[in-house]
């Protein structure tokens, strides 16, 4: 449908019923109000919608879903709209209604003895971390978009982030869910139990489903003791294999102390220094870096001695070329910023193709080397910018346009680049999506990677729970 054509009209009276149900804060129809909800973070997709629903309670959402289901209208759930794969963007038809859960942002309960908190889906991830900290606890899920991403969004995508090596993905941090189903019924699965062996674990269907089975409206989240001691090291390493060897040294010495282990290329660190205000980098001029974050809830855990001992061993072995240890909270934050600003620095450098992939941890160095070589052979001058969670096998195998190449021309090769990377990933026994999900961007890969019985089961689950196909259509499952 051409952009200058109005979207198809809603069924008579539906808009009035939604307006009466949701109130003036809960229904937006103006072009200016809708604009922020129609494009994804990477500007890969620009959709259209006749209106935005912003329910203030679960009951309002449930009734709105019932009305839309009766009218056969598709719904697109949206949290912080930070998807890297277009998972929360409506299509161009103008028929899909966007549903923002931003107003469902209450903390319903927190129990430091049970080590759980029950929060609504619209609560921003950073706020969830702060609420846990105020209660003397830790909610460990941490990622670059945590100031915008919401609890419902990170659960719907099974987000990972920086601390997966220690605490697991979002799925491992969830005990129970509340979900509005496609017919408007509310499933209350907000159980705080560590053990509940009563049939199918329905909660796990909705985590990672990217809103295609219903709306996550609240969750019981696991908490942990707050760290009493932390240490952060920033290291220049010889190569990718040396980075993995350093991870093994820390893991073998005290696996429970390793909270994060992040790899960065010299190219990506250089982009950070070039484009991010105040982006100074210690130990400049190297080709490979790692950030190692240690934490313990034990008093006098001896993490500084552990950090120094392991780094000394690695220096003697030639694996670490140079290293610095953060001496204050400000220094540690500055070191983490180098890693967290990688996506923004790449964006400012030019066009890039992002590959969120995972392989067994032992194969990460081979992934980086082989994928980089294959992409250089595909497009001479291409600049590989691999970075990410070496400790759990998830590398963002990103590729930056060659210097001087037109950005649009480079992005036109996105499919070829992703296929080149994925061929290496497949050979190494990996996955074409590690933590970003499928969204709209990667649905065409599902048949090849997850076809046969696996994809058939997914389709049957979708058909059983959402027989009209109204929940976030066009995402995850190929058409």
UniProtKB/TrEMBL annotation:
Q: Which GO terms describe its molecular function?
A: catalytic activity; FAD binding
Q: Which cofactor does it need?
A: FAD
Question: Coiled-coil ranges per the record?
Answer: none
BP-aspect Gene Ontology terms: respiratory electron transport chain
Keywords recorded for this protein, A-Z = FAD, Flavoprotein
Residues forming the FAD-binding PCMH-type domain are: 45-226
Q: Name one Pfam family in it.
A: FAD-oxidase_C
Q: Which domain of life is it from?
A: Bacteria
Spell out the SUPFAM superfamilies in the cross-references.
FAD-binding/transporter-associated domain-like (SSF56176), FAD-linked oxidases, C-terminal domain (SSF55103)
Please indicate if the UniProt record lists Flavoprotein as a keyword.
yes
Q: Which family does it belong to?
A: Belongs to the FAD-binding oxidoreductase/transferase type 4 family.
Q: What is this protein called?
A: Hydroxyacid dehydrogenase
């Amino acid at each position: 449908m051409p952009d200058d054509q109005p979207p198809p009209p809603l069924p008579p009276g539906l808009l009035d019923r939604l307006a009466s149900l949701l109130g003036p804060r809960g229904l937006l129809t103006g072009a200016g109000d809708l604009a922020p909800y129609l494009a994804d973070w990477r500007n890969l997709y620009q959709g259209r919608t006749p209106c935005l629903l912003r329910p203030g309670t679960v009951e309002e959402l449930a009734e709105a879903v019932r009305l839309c289901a009766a009218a056969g209208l598709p719904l697109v759930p949206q949290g912080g709209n930070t998807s890297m794969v277009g998972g929360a963007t409506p299509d161009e038809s103008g028929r899909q209604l966007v549903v923002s859960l931003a107003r469902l942002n209450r903390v319903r309960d927190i129990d430091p003895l049970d080590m759980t908190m029950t929060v609504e889906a619209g609560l921003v991830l950073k706020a969830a971390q702060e609420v846990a900290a105020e209660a003397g606890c830790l909610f460990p899920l941490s990622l670059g978009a945590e100031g915008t991403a919401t609890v419902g969004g990170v659960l719907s995508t099974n987000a990972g982030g920086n601390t997966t090596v220690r605490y697991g993905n979002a799925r491992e941090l969830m005990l129970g869910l509340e979900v509005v189903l496609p017919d408007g019924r509310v499933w209350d699965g907000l159980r705080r139990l560590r053990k509940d062996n009563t049939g199918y674990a329905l909660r796990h269907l909705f985590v990672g489903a990217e809103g295609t089975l219903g709306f996550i409206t609240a969750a019981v989240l696991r908490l942990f003791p707050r760290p009493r001691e932390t240490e952060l090291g920033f290291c220049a390493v010889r190569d990718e294999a040396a980075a993995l060897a350093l991870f093994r040294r820390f893991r073998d010495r005290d696996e429970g102390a390793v909270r994060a282990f992040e790899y960065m290329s010299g190219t990506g660190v250089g982009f950070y220094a070039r484009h991010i205000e105040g982006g100074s980098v210690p130990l400049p001029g190297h080709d490979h870096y790692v950030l190692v974050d240690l934490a313990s809830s034990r008093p006098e855990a001896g993490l500084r001695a552990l950090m120094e001992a392991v780094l000394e061993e690695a220096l003697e072995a030639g694996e670490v070329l140079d290293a610095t240890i953060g001496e204050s909270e400000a220094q540690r934050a500055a070191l983490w910023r180098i890693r967290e600003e990688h996506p923004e620095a790449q964006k400012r450098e030019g066009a890039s193709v992002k590959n969120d992939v995972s392989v067994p941890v032992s194969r990460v160095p081979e992934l980086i080397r082989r994928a980089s070589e294959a992409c250089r052979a595909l497009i001479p001058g291409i600049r590989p910018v691999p970075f990410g969670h070496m400790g759990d096998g998830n590398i963002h195998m990103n590729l930056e346009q060659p210097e001087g190449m037109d950005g649009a021309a480079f992005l036109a090769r996105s499919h070829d680049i992703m296929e080149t990377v994925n061929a290496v990933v497949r050979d190494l026994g990996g996955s074409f999506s590690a933590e970003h999900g499928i969204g709209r961007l990667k649905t065409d890969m599902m048949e090849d990677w997850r076809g046969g019985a696996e994809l058939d089961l997914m389709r049957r689950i979708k058909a059983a729970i959402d027989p009209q196909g109204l929940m976030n259509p066009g995402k995850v499952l190929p058409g």
